[in-house]
Amino acid sequence: MKELLERKKGLRRKVLIVDDEAIEREMLGDMLSDLYETGYAGNGREALDTIRDESAAISLILLDLYMPKPDGYDLLKIIRGDPALRRIPVIVLTAEKGSEVECLQMGAADFITKPYDAPEVIRARVGRSIELAEDSVIIHETQRDELTGLFNKEFFFEYGKLLDSQNGNTPMDAVIVDINRFRIVNELYGRAYGDMVLKKIGVGIHSLVNKTGGLACRFDSNSFCLYVPHDEKLREKLPDYISQVRETLGGARITVRIGVYSDDGSTDEMERRFDRAKLACRKLRNTYSTGFNFYNSELHEKELYAERLISDIDTALAEGQFRVWFQPKYDISGDKPRIASAEALVRWAHPEFGMISPGIFIPLFEDNGLIHKLDSYVWNNAAAEIKRLRDSYGITLPVSVNVSRVDIFDPRLGDELTEIVTANGITENELLLEITESAYTDDSRQIIDTVSALRERGFRIEMDDFGCGYSSLNMLTSLPLDALKLDMKFIRHITDRPKDSRLVSIMIEIARLLEVPVIAEGVETREQAELLKKMGCDIIQGYYFSKPLPAEGFEALIKTEKGGLLC
């Protein structure tokens, strides 16, 4: 439609005059021909053929109501009922006052009464109708997502808030539909296929909204929002809705997650409802089959708790509520195990909630981007501990710290890390950087470039959780790495499950081919340690040697084992 309007810029608009009276056709043509290109049809059938053949060129139709079949009424119904034609404004020509209201209700843009005794008025009505129709097209285009035809999210929320203000007593449900792993769909099948999926889901959602009322939008690249009148039976109806969406996809191998905030009579604003629907959808994050989840009181309590933790992070950092603990890593390649390095871990001693598990606050801060504040805090504390141990005991003990996916995309990452090691008087190869394997699959080129730049500065990189991500064997050969760290879940059953043992052995062999050492974490028993040593594992981390220790406990361990440390 945008292209159509562009083509019409600077051109004379075409007006089609439809009337079975030749004299009246000519009269209207004479009034308009100096301003517009005019076309003529003497009956409804001729007019319909012309309209369908030249729809892109016609800017307005002047339509007499009384003609041989199809008459003006029937032709108006056809035009307004056809999505390809309904953009064309229609001005009806009539001598009967009673027909005007009926035609306006049927979708006519305006009316002109016979006889035609005021050419200036006719010209003004024609010009105004064309202008309004073209403005409407432009507004429609700016309100809609070009690919799916649904509202764009900006207009969606503005329109939704307007509806709420006008119909404050109407309960509304917020629904989010998210396509599982859509980025992978695009990579495997191509962007054209992905666009086809989005279009078909848009068709399905548009159909649902037409049936239930409300409005819908494409929220971002792979998710949609629906704001629909509250339905007490929505939970029972969702499987049918999902089936309808699936039908529009045909054979496409696509699954979706659906999060729902069902109106509970609260006065929450529209954005807040969708925040809660998004939270319900997020709980299905690791589910790759189609499913749905409703926001409920349990999620509400968790949300309040999460919001409290988010709001407390700055105070916690300023007051030192976060404690950096250390878990030693033991080199087992020689005759006697000895501490080779350590991993910095963070704990939160909250003044109200007590000790909070990192499994709660770290994913939370990763989701909202606050993780960099915490990471930076840990980096500084780890660097200070490295220097303190060297000054106190004359030892050089590297410490590994986590670098999150958020950090990777920070253009100042390398400068910040260099500033930290310089300020603490240590070297880059003493602050080891752990990057989880799954991070390499998010934007592999960006991450490889960033990691390569860090290694050029002198930092050493450990791939954490090796085996849990999706990096291919081919990709491993191009990754800049200094160590592979096996996830603890592979270690848990290596002594009683031959398949697990064989799998770990294969991963160690891969590390050998890459010429990098292997670190096994989560080692808890002598049997596990001995088997890993036999397989050729280099370094072990886990409760078998030591649990994570606060700084003072870690220092006491260093005192005890100082003689066996690598200096």
Q: Would you give an account of this structure?
A:
The chain has 567 residues and is α/β, with parallel strands linked by helices. The chain has 3 domains: 2-143, Rossmann fold (3-Layer(aba) Sandwich), CATH 3.40.50; 151-295, Alpha-Beta Plaits, CATH 3.30.70; 315-558, TIM Barrel (Alpha-Beta Barrel), CATH 3.20.20.450. It has 22 helices and 20 strands. Strand 10, helix 11 and strand 11 (291-294) form a beta-alpha-beta unit. The model is unreliable at 1-10 (pLDDT under 50).
* Helix content estimate: 40-55%
Low-confidence stretches: 1-10
The rounded Rg comes to 34 Å
CATH fold field value of the largest domain:
TIM Barrel
Counted beta strands: 20
Major sheet details: 8 strands, mixed, barrel
Supply the CATH class of the largest domain.
Alpha Beta
What proportion strand?
15-25%
- Named at the architecture level, the CATH assignment of the largest domain is Alpha-Beta Barrel
Report the span from N to C terminus: 73 Å
Number of domains: 3
Oligomeric status: single chain
**Spatial order of the strands in the main sheet?**
12-13-15-16-17-18-19-20
Mean pLDDT: 85
Instruction: Assign the CATH superfamily of the largest domain.
Output: EAL domain
- Quickly give the structural class: alpha/beta
